[in-house]
Amino acid sequence: MHYVWAFLVGGAICALVQILMDNTKLMPGRIMVILVCTGVVLGAIGVYEPFAKWAGAGATVPLLGFGNTLFKGMKEAIDSEGFIGLFKGGFTACAVGVSAALLFGYIASLFFKPKMK
User: Fold this and answer.
1) Residue 77 to residue 84: CA distance in whole angstroms
2) What is the pTM (predicted TM-score) of this model?
3) Most buried one in 19, 45, 67, 78, CB count within 10 A?
4) What is the DSSP secondary-structure string of 62-114?
């Protein structure tokens, strides 16, 4: 049943973003920033964590989850290191995910012939 909820919630988030893209003149980059900032705000007010426990990967994989991960990393770093944690926390919390995306993208480019369009 976890897979079904993850699929439904992740699909609903993607459908809402697609509706936003189709019905506004917002560029995709701005929509991505809106999603990350929304994840940060929902994490800050304490709504995102129960939602992520209920929805599983459907809530943690999209950009909303990335924003929440940034918030949690910054909050932990600020609690342990003070003001400097404001600048370090997001980097340490998301370093593995960003590094994996870069590494796997590079490996995929070795197997396939990427071309600029």
Assistant:
1) 8
2) 0.76
3) 67
4) SHHHHHHHHHHHHHHHHHHHGGGHHHHHHHHHHHHHHHHHHHHHHHHHHHS--
Domain segments of the chain as ranges: 2-111
What is the per-residue pLDDT across 34-91, written as a single tens digit (0 to 9) for each? 999 999 999 999 999 898 888 888 888 888 888 888 888 888 888 988 888 888 888 8
**What phi and psi values does residue 24 have, to the nearest 5 degrees?**
-130, 170
Q: Which amino acid is at 67?
A: G
DSSP at 24: S
Tell me the residue type at 99.
S
**Which residue matches tokens 């770093």?**
77
